[in-house]
Structure formats: structure tokens, C-alpha cells
Design a protein that fits this description.
The protein is of the alpha+beta class. It has 2 domains: 222 residues, Immunoglobulin-like (Sandwich), CATH 2.60.40; 46 residues. The chain is 34% helix and 24% strand. The protein is built from 8 helices and 10 strands. Strands 1, 5, 8, 9 and 10 form a 5-stranded antiparallel sheet that branches. Strands 2, 3, 4, 6 and 7 form a 5-stranded antiparallel sheet that branches. A hairpin with a 2-residue loop joins strand 2 and strand 3. Helix 7 packs across helix 8. It is elongated and about 110 Å long.
Length: 280
């Protein structure tokens, strides 16, 4: 059994959707089997969190050829067609053949074979709010999640850089330049588990039960329900649009205040001007 875990996404471009927000979803296809994660709605700051497990049945043999895992990152749209943000293809032939020849009977993580940069959780970046920082700490803490720290798992995580063949690498557009300078990337881990071990080391799809081997923590940065309408609007339209709306609202209030001030002061001033000759 091939178990693929999609942990999180970074560096998503801001020009994909309205307000710089992305309804992100990762799709992985191995052979004829196409599986997808859940959707991180209104992901901001180019980041999305999934912690989602995908499982593929597989039979190893010495004659295996063209074993590929295709990875795609999509922006889901409710009205128009979905937009593909980027894709990558992982070549797994050598890993499969090595595991088959050695007749390994224990779970085996893919090390990326030097093709991909290793993930370092110390360089995940900054957080927009204190809530996101607390959520991230809770998701990473073995004490709070109930999972044991697995050094083999941590060392098996790697970045998968994505490419968008619809973008022109020679373009002078700012968004295209930023895309090729820092392409979007996904943190993933792959594990091969022999059939006999897979029955013992059970794990649910996605984050469903049995949620173990390893535990899939609750994703961070997702939409949160709150009674604060300004917070809801900010989550739905994004911080940039929210700031613009705040500026427009301030301008409207200033104009209304000026009109109100003029309504009460102009008659008084005009009356004083008209009555001044008679009073004098």
C-alpha cells in the first residue's frame, strides 16, 4: 500500500483569485486512481493547511515501469471552472524496485532520492494572527495531539515545487516573475507498507478514524465562525479588500460628517451675515 500525506502548501500566487485568497485543493493521481484532499477555503498569505492522507493499493514487481505520482494544486471555483495553480510529477520507479529487490517487510519512507529539498519545520514562516500561531503550535505538539514524535517521519517530509506551463517564464508581468522566482510548493511524505503490515498498521483516509500511523492533526488557518461581522468579512474577502472597504467606509463617514456639519453651521453663518447690517 502506498500512503501519501499532503501536509501543507506554501507560496501560492496572489493573482489566482479575487482578493488574493485561494480555495485550495490538492489532487494526486497514481495510475488510474485519482484522489483529492479536502478544500482549504479562503486560504490567505499564500498558505494552505491539509494534513490529509491518501492511500493507493499497489503491487510491486521487478518489471515495474513508469511509476509516477502526479500532483496538482487547484483553486476551486463555485461558478467558473477550477484554476490549476501548478503541478509536478514524482518518479517512483527506483524506489519501488529497491524495496522489491530488498524484500523489505517493514514500512519504508521515500527519501526523495535527492530530487527534492527536505522540509524544515523551523522555516515555516510567520503567522498573520496569534490564533494561527496557537493553532500551529497545537498541531505540531505531540503532547496536545496525542501522537508520538516520529524522527523517521519528520526526516521523510519534503517540498514538492510546482510548475504552471500556462505561464510564460520570459514574461515581464510582476505576478509571473514572482511565480518563477518562488514557485508554489507542497509539503508531502510518501510511505510504502507491505500488505501484512498494512493490516496491522491501520490508518484512515484523510483525517478519518483510525487517525494514526501517523496522526493527522487538525489543519490551521481555516475559516473560523465568530460573532464579529468584521472578522467574518475579513476571512471571506481577504485583508487587502477588507482594508479597501475600511478606507471607503471612512471616506463615507467623513463625507457624512461634513454634510451634517454644513447642515447645521451654514444656516447660522448665513443668518449672521444677513443680519449683521441691521444689527450694526
Amino acid at each position: 500500500e502506498l500512503r501519501v500525506v499532503v501536509w501543507n502548501v506554501d507560496r501560492m500566487p496572489k493573482d489566482v483569485d479575487f482578493g488574493g485568497l485561494v480555495d485550495a485543493q490538492v489532487v494526486c493521481q497514481f495510475g488510474e486512481t485519482r484522489l483529492e484532499t479536502d478544500t482549504h477555503f479562503r486560504a490567505k498569505n499564500g498558505k494552505a493547511s491539509f494534513n490529509w492522507r491518501l492511500k493507493y493499493p499497489i503491487t510491486l514487481s521487478s518489471a515495474m515501469k513508469y511509476q509516477r505520482l502526479q500532483v496538482q494544486l487547484w483553486d476551486k471555483d463555485l461558478i467558473s471552472a477550477n484554476d490549476m495553480i501548478g503541478e509536478a510529477t514524482l518518479k517512483l520507479d527506483r524506489w519501488f524496485k529497491r524495496v522489491y529487490k530488498r524484500k523489505q517487510k517493514m514500512p519504508n519512507y521515500w527519501d526523495g532520492e535527492g530530487q527534492l529539498p527536505q522540509y524544515d519545520k523551523e522555516t515555516k514562516g510567520t503567522f498573520e494572527t496569534l490564533t494561527e500561531a496557537v493553532e500551529s503550535l497545537s498541531a505540531d505538539s505531540p503532547l496536545l495531539t496525542g501522537r508520538e514524535e516520529d524522527p523517521a517521519l519528520e526526516s521523510s517530509k519534503f517540498w514538492v515545487p510546482l510548475s504552471d506551463f500556462n505561464r510564460d517564464p520570459t514574461s515581464t508581468d510582476k505576478a509571473d516573475k514572482e511565480y518563477f522566482e518562488q514557485p508554489p510548493r507542497i509539503v508531502m511524505s510518501l510511505q510504502l507498507i507491505p500488505k501484512a503490515q498494512a493490516e496491522k498498521i491501520q490508518a484512515g483516509d484523510g483525517r478519518s478514524e483510525p487517525n494514526k500511523n501517523p496522526v493527522m492533526p487538525k489543519p490551521v488557518g481555516r475559516l473560523r465562525f465568530t460573532l464579529n461581522p468584521f472578522s467574518i468579512i475579513s476571512q471571506l474577502v481577504g485583508p487587502e479588500i477588507c482594508r479597501k472597504l475600511q478606507c471607503i467606509l471612512c471616506q463615507i463617514l467623513c463625507c457624512a460628517l461634513c454634510v451634517l456639519l454644513a447642515y447645521y453651521t451654514v444656516p447660522v453663518v448665513f443668518g449672521n451675515i444677513v443680519s449683521e447690517p441691521f444689527v450694526g
